[in-house]
Request: fold
Amino acid sequence: MIAKPINNRAWFFVLPVLGFVLFSSIVPTMTVVNYSVQDTMGANNFFWNGDQWFRDLLNPTTAIGQRFNDALFRTLAFSLTCLLVEIPLGIAVALCAPRKGWAVGPALVVVALPMLIPWNVVGTIWQIFTREDIGLFGAALTGLGLPYNVTQEAISAWTTIVVMDVWHWTPLVVLLSYAGLRAIPDAYYQAARIDGASRWAVFSKIELPKLQKVLVIAVLLRFMQTFMIYTEPFVVTGGGPGSATTFLSIDLDKIALGQVDLGNAAAMSLVYYLITLTVCYVFFTIMTQLERRRDV
Amino acid sequence: MRNDALPRVLFAAYVLVLMLPIYWLIKMSLQSNTDIMSGLTLYPRHPSFEKYIAIFNDPTWVHGFGVSLSYVAINTAISVAVALPAAYAFNRYHFLGDKHLFFWLLTNLMAPAAVFAMPFFQLYYAVGLFDTVWAVALAHCLFNVPLAVWILEGFVGGVPREIDETAAIDGYSFPRFFIRIFLPLIANGIGVTAFFCFMFSWVEQLLATTLTSSHALPFAAVMTRAYSVAGMDWSLLAAAGVLTMIPGAVVIWFVRNHIAKGFALGRV
Reply:
């Protein structure tokens, strides 16, 4: 591979993107930063508060620190659970999907359908679908004798949110993996057949390495989305029962809009943002390094 | 020999499970509220299109649908248009701070909308765009533009650099090369990118409802009408929900071949 030429005029190509993104990002970000270092006595009267909000937040013995820790733990557990289910399931479904014939078009459309529903509608669908009296899912589980109750019981609420997210977002992994699989030239499969490779060998030696690039996109997008999940659990459980499904963004919203505690909310969102950023950066760097090592 | 029947059965089973909640929504939209609440039924006993007709005859709903479609269309057009040259630059050249800039763009996908809702409201109110489709279209650029750059960069990488050089030798000016030769080569990528932009803009509701009040109320915000003092109008809500799926289904039908042909991300 030839090295890319150095050309600083390429900046002109990037300027429009920079403009559009900066317009929507810089003022809101700075507003949040401002709130995070100030306190108010109301009536738009702000004064400097230094790093006190951050100290409180990161100290687990304070009320807010405790609350933040709990929500952070819940959110991480939720993200991990979803990734562990969605990524393997998505790859498996993509492997099973039809590759040619009339079924390809309709199959893609039905698989993608859950992703194309506005998030509050997704919440509404599952709110109804999981009711014991008029929803199929709730009625089936109750019929089996399980103690299923989304509004009363933490495990039910938690399972419902995970199942909903798997239903909603596995299609993204399927579509990305499917596209990645289609990009593998037939010659690779022919060579494997001549060598008498097993199905597992074809998967682990050809398909999985070729999927790496799309899987990086899938994992990163899914991590960010599950880590920031807001609308769907808000509609289905409202963060309850108790605080069982109060994920970070729901908690933030409660603090910022419910209690109008802007300092705490701002400090919390910055820390939250930095955590997301760090996880993504580490993952991104490891994956690109691995890829480079394989290419050499 | 590879058995072909098993994958097909598994895939059909997955699709079946996937469709259940959607079927439930469609079923409810065809029932009356008394039918819905009277107990569990697997199919509508007295199907009627009453709620759909009610929605089509109500200008607020129709207007809401138009608003949603227009900001999504504007956003998709802007995102793809500005992301194309940027994706080309990121893939073809090294320039000062390119890697940091790329990662910074991605960080904008990580901003939780719940946090930014308030500052966004203040910003768009201050510039006088509040309650217009432009506010929502621009706000959605925050996450759609970086996403578009990210996806397109992979597709640009799938086009060999020799093509750029050959075109230059043949005397094509850069803009002419870009439009006449390069864009057709990454048509699949543009299709896929447009689909993703459409999707994420169409499903995002928090910013869309925060940035609008009455003139540019998106469809999903009109749906809150179903929650009234008289209780939930489940049937109306379900009918509106079914309608929100249609534009997405149409768009993916048009780009299905682009997706099937694959992200040229392999760089084989």
Observations:
- The two ends of chain A are 10 Å apart (CA to CA).
- Chain A has twelve helices and two strands.
- Chain A touches chain B through 100 residues (CB under 8 Å).
- The first strand of chain A starts at residue 38 and ends at 40.
